[in-house]
Specification:
By secondary structure, the chain is mainly α. It contains 2 helices and no strands. The longest helix is centred in the middle third of the chain and has 52 residues. It is rod-shaped. The termini are far apart.
Length: 66
Amino acid sequence: MNDLIQVFTERGDLAHLALLLWALAASGAFLVTLRELAAASRRFDEFVRQLSRFNRRTKTHFNAED
């Protein structure tokens, strides 16, 4: 890694190295965010399923008493 930094420094491409590091960090942050969004979507889907199941049970229970 030090050799790579030395090559960039000698050629004056330090700005390109900084841009590459920024792009890698931004891409990594995007992937983490996307993974968390997918997990939140799965949790919300499970919540809606449970709520639907609860409503079906409650409706059946109250209709049986009428």
